[in-house]
Amino acid sequence: MGKQLRQSQVSMEFVFLIGVAFMVMLVFVSSTRSEFSALQSEEERSLVKDVSIMVQQEIIIASNVDDGYNRIFYVPLTLNSISYEIQIINNTLFTFTEDYEHSLNIPPVFGNVQKGNNTIRKISGIVYLN
Question: Fewer CB atoms inside 10 A, N or C side of the chain?
Fold first, then answer.
């Protein structure tokens, strides 16, 4: 009878250890997943900001140079597979995804930015986009 009791005690300890190991694994996977989500969110925010600053710089350069300036620049279609919108409203450049929005002041410009190739030029002191 003592041998049978010892075997059942070993079995209970084994089940308990498996349960503890499973809980530790669950906590690890959960924390790793939340860290991954946070990294993805930070990447999305950074991409939105980067494309905004790039377009803002193109417009600032065009407004500060002499007449006759003409340049083609590219605005990505997506931000690492993240869909986004970009537009100019009242000298403010708005770039936004489903989760984030970034806005920047820009010099006066006629036209709007588009995804893909954009042509920016300065004629008679006025900056034209597309």
Answer: N
